[in-house]
Every structure is written in C-alpha cells, then in structure tokens.
Amino acid sequence: MNKVEQSWYKPISLINIVLLPLSGLFWLVSSVRRLMFRAGIKSSYKASVPVMIVGNIGIGGNGKTPFVLWLVPYLQSLGLKVAVISRGYGAKPPHTPYKVCDDSTAAQAGDEPLLIYKRLGCDVIIGGDRKASIEYLIAHNEPDIIVSDDGLQHYQLDRDIEICIVDNERRFGNGLLLPAGPLRETPKRLKSVDLTVFNGSIKEDGYSLNTTGIYSVKTGARVTQFEPKGIAVSAIGNPSRFEKSLSANGVTITQSKHFADHHMFTKQDFEIYNKSNIFMTEKDAVKCQSYAKDNWYFLRVDAVPSEGLVNKLHNLLDRKGIITHGV
Q1: DSSP string covering 32-91, please?
Q2: CA-angle at 233, arms to 232 and 234, nearest 5°
Q3: pLDDT of res. 325
Q4: How far is CA 30 from the centre of its chain?
Q5: CA-CA-CA-CA torsion for 304, 306, 309, 311, nearest 10 degrees?
Q6: Is 264 in contact with 106 (CB distance < 8 Å)?
Q7: Each residue's pLDDT tens digit, 299-311
Q8: What is the DSSP string of 313-324?
Q9: Which of 156, 190, 207, 289 could form a disulfide with 305 if both were Cys (CB 3.0 to 4.6 A apart)?
Q10: In this predicted model, what pLDDT tens digit does every residue of 137-174 receive, in sequence order?
Q11: CA distances from 77 to 66, 162, 315, 319, 324 (A)
C-alpha cells in the first residue's frame, strides 16, 4: 500500500487536501455519467435472466469474494442454476468472453475468478464486456441467475439486485472520493442498493470471516502438521486482517511482505526467502500453485452470515420473483 492509500484510513492530512480538486473532478464525471443512464441518454443492457451484482463503493479489501463464495452455494441450495461473471482484473485471457476451466491459469483468468471456479466449480466467465459474457452464458449454459462479481458502478448493465459489501472495520476510510480517499461513490449510494452487507459484523446485516484451516499451496489439501512460524506474503487490499487471522491461528509471523492488490506473483518474488515457511491467502495461493514449495501454506477463510442476513436475502429473492414463495 503506497502513501496515498495509507492516508485514506487516517485523519485527513495535507496529501488528501492536495488531491481534493481531483476528487471533485472524479465526482463530477461519475455523477454526470450516472445521471445520463438515469435519464435514458445512455442505455443499459437488460439480460433475459436475473442479474445480481455484488460490489462495493470503495476499493480493495472489502471481503467481497468470500461473500460470493458463500452466496453461490446458497443460491444453489434454493434450486437455482448459478453462473458468475467478472471483469477479471489484471487477467489476460486468450479471448473474451473467456470461460474459466480446469486448465486456466491466474494470468489468464485473474486471481478472484480462478479462486471462485476452483472452490465452487460453477460456470465463471470473464471479460470487460459484461453483456457479451451474459449472452455467452445464456446461449451455452442457461443459468437461472447470474452473479456479477463487482460492477456496482457498471451502469451499462441493468441489474435486478444490488448488494454492497462494506468492511465493518475500515468502513469508508476518510470518507473522500478517489484519489483523496478510497471511495468510488459516496455513502449516500447505500440508500439505493437492495442490501448493504457488513463484513466483520455479527449483527443482522453482517457476516463474519471464520478461518477453516491451513492448506498446502502446492497440493490444495488441508495440513495439520506444519511449523507455525514463517513469512506472511500477501497481495490483497487489507493485509492486516489476514495477518491478524494468521496470528489468531497460532502462526508466528517473522516478516510481512505486502504487494499491490492482485499482483501477479512470479517465482522470482520468493527467491529471497530461501527455505522459509511462507503463509498467504487463498486468493494469492491460486497464483503460486505451479511453483510452490512443500512449506508454502494458505489460510482458508469462509463467510458465515448472520441469521438475519440470510432471512433478508431470502425475502429479497422472493420479493423480486427469483424464487417462488416458500422455497
């Protein structure tokens, strides 16, 4: 995290004030753009199947992917055939739309889409043109509902349900828009979404992130015998949460190394660590499996929603006609 990003989660300082004019320009451009969609000057694509967007108003580290990893199986438990679309941040697929498969690499698919596919095995399509991704799914897979991983601000895509994930710990940082702060839209945007979900809250509208074991990066299998001491390496938006979870699971962190969110790891990134134990997130592990050593591990976490959140989501699906009453 660079100095500007670090300043987002501290009291407003000179660096934020200097960037305020750019934030004002960002607000103006984004507001005019959204107004054009509302007024019909710009048109949105309406899919023939329901679309649920899981996004946020800030950038990085909100816990969106763990929620999607819980959400898809929950929708499937209601009898729905679910598919996922994603822009595939940083991915370089051979073509788009690109269907993630067993042979896909993180470089082709992106870290989060590959993680979702490996965990869930559902249809995952990536591409910047979300309309093309949806039409590919409808033509080839006929899903009952499509979950868009991110895309809350992608107003070219009409949506049936909007879910906004908020980090209950960091919330909205200094409350300023990019680049003076971490926000893509102001908190007023939450009034128009269907459901605001707080990551790290056990209250009615939240979910906790529970650790569910240490796994081998190389094999993907859970391990019970390992030396609980090593280097924490991460390329995520909020590395402190990951490191706190590692410590809470009895791992002694001898050194922390932070890379930019979505950094595409190479073998050379780890050469300086020689024979040290490496601990990382599951999102980072999918990028390193092909060259991982036996003493590289990842910490798996799972979203555990409150009963109130599950009931609200169920009622929302019922009200929108996505499920039949009483399912």
Answers
A1: HHHHHHHTTSS--B--SS-EEEEE-SB-S-S-HHHHHHHHHHHHHHTT--EEEEE--TT-
A2: 120
A3: 58
A4: 22
A5: 110
A6: yes
A7: 999 999 999 999 9
A8: HHHHHHHTTSS-
A9: 207
A10: 999 999 999 999 989 999 999 999 999 999 988 889 99
A11: 17, 20, 15, 18, 13
